[in-house]
């Protein structure tokens, strides 16, 4: 398997899951501005949408969209316990969180990254994110992880998107549960390795 990534982007989530699962893989960095891979290929020939993550499988199949990729990876290494069994309520709780993070958190960050967003658009996005942070923080109050008693795919995704607040200077001071979650997950060896491999920490 080969993971196409950009440092700190949403591809960090499957990067963490790959390491947590103990799966063999290679990785290649993508310049999202030029749409070129580190090897010089046109990334759009791999993922026509031009964004990461993309996971190239040995059979030549390419998976895109982070939530789908992490489900595939978790199911490829069930012994790692990153996603509950098919048919269990716990699995669908985890999938609910993956969808929530994708649609309610990830998407609401978009205006904050786009240079053509107006001040009004950015302020509206911050207010929307604050409401959603309230919801996630309430859920995490008294819990270590989003779904179940151990680290899972939804936690990797939440950790990734919360990391964008540093770049955007969006303080999480009003949500100590989110700060504690980030600190807790950041200590995991696989997370530290992923951050080092992407050049985000030394």
TrEMBL record:
One of its GO terms (molecular function) is glutathione transferase activity. Keywords: Transferase. The keyword Transport does not apply. Its EC number is 2.5.1.18. Residues 87-202 form the GST C-terminal domain. It is an enzyme of class 2 (transferase). Residues 1-81 form the GST N-terminal domain. It comes from the Bacteria. Signal peptide: none annotated. InterPro entries: Glutathione-S-Trfase_C-like, Glutathione-S-Trfase_C_sf, Glutathione_S-Trfase, Glutathione_S-Trfase_N, GST_C, Thioredoxin-like_sf. Gene3D superfamilies: 1.20.1050.10, Glutaredoxin. NCBIfam families: PRK10542.1. This is Glutathione transferase GstA. It comes from Massilia haematophila. The gene is gstA.
């Amino acid at each position: 398997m080969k993971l196409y990534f950009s440092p700190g982007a949403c591809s960090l989530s499957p990067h963490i899951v790959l390491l947590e699962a103990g799966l063999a893989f290679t990785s290649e960095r993508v310049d999202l501005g030029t749409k070129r891979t580190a090897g010089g290929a046109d990334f759009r020939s791999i993922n026509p949408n031009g964004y990461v993550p993309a996971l190239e499988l040995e059979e030549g199949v390419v998976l895109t969209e982070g939530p789908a990729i992490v489900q595939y990876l978790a199911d490829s290494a069930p012994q790692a316990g990153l996603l509950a069994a098919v048919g269990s309520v716990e699995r669908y709780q985890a999938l609910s969180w993956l969808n929530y993070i994708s649609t309610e958190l990830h998407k609401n960050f978009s205006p904050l990254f786009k240079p053509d967003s107006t001040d009004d658009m950015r302020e509206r996005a911050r207010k929307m994110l604050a409401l959603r942070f309230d919801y996630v923080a309430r859920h995490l109050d008294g819990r270590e992880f989003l779904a179940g008693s151990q680290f899972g795919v939804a936690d990797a995704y939440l950790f990734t998107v919360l990391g964008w607040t540093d770049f955007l200077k969006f303080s999480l001071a009003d949500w100590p549960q989110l700060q504690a979650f980030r600190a807790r997950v950041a200590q995991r060896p696989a997370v530290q390795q992923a951050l080092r491999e992407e050049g985000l920490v030394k």
